[in-house]
Design a protein that fits this description.
The complex is a heterodimer. By secondary structure, chain A is an alpha+beta fold. Helix content of chain A is about 40%, strand content about 25%. In chain A, strands 3-2-1-6-5-4 form a six-stranded mixed beta sheet. In chain A, helix 2 packs antiparallel against helix 3. Chain A is globular, with a radius of gyration of 15 Å. The N and C termini of chain A lie far apart (about 35 Å). By secondary structure, chain B is of the alpha+beta class. Chain B has a four-stranded antiparallel beta sheet with strand order 1-2-4-3, with helices on one face. In chain B, helix 1 packs antiparallel against helix 2 (about 30-55) and helix 2 crosses helix 4. Classes of the chains: A alpha+beta, B alpha+beta. The interface between A and B is medium-sized, with 22 and 18 residues. Chain B: Its main location: endoplasmic reticulum. Chain B: Keywords: Endoplasmic reticulum, Golgi apparatus, Neurogenesis. Chain B: InterPro entries: NO_sig/Golgi_transp_ligand-bd, TRAPP_component, TRAPPC6/Trs33. Chain B: One of its GO terms (biological process) is endoplasmic reticulum to Golgi vesicle-mediated transport.
Amino acid sequence: MEICKVFFHLSVSVILSPLQNYPLYIRSVPSQSELKFHYTVHTSLDVVEEKISTAGKAMAEQRELYLGLLYPTEDYKVYGYVTNSKVKFVIVVDSSNTSLRDNEIRSMFRKLHNSFTDVMCNPFYNPGDPIQSRAMFTMVSGLKSDKCGWLV
Amino acid sequence: MADDVLFEFLHMEMVSHVYKEQASRDDIDKDRITCVSILEGMGFRVGQGLIERCTKDYPTFKDDLDVMKFLCKDFWTSIFRKQVDNLRTNHQGTYVLQDNKFALLTQVSSGKQHLEEAPKYLAYSCGLIRGALSNLGLESVVTAEVSLMPSCKFQVVIQKS
């Protein structure tokens, strides 16, 4: 699966590819300590895989695309989302930013998914390539500034 | 007014364009195979993008059969404005989708006339199915057959890796 990682100072977003799990897109708000975020996201992949495979056994219920809080570490919270095309999105948020509610994370994933769909439908984009879309960049910057707006 | 047939016209022109291009080149023997694979390749890429849009708000699929049902109902409806009429499977990874009035063949003929030309008009749709399945994580081989227009069958064999 391709992982697109977008790291924000407060959060990191990642989009992961369907088959090989390499990053399709990575952004972090302040570009420091990116390596640490890379590591966090890669370890969170195991949790994502586990959630997908256990969900497969529960045939009765409808499964959502949003996976919820994957695991909290002492500094960060990691949220996951997987599309039907097996592309995984991961957002890492700073734990100190407690004002972010589930709904907001969901809407962030929604926006990420919408942008990703647009990128996919772009005839100049080859599936599997790193994403270089400006529209995606602008959207992700918008997400970050939204969160900054809540910082008190 | 003419909205319904816009894509059908485009598709017809696409097919004749691809064949004309190939005919103007020297290598006649490879013509048929290259044209079909060009059309199939086009369908593949379009299928990938389309399925991304179609499944955006859809909950996760339970298994392969669920995926095929989605393909036969929602996906087919969004492209051809009707559902696939019959889906058969051997539960071993082979599925046959039968459409009794395939939108891209209705204008060609309604019997045995022009039967030998029919495969040209099915290549793109085979690619569409293969692209859609590929993005859903299922590698497949899709072939189509026609015995009586405008009815056709698409055979999908899921590759187990």
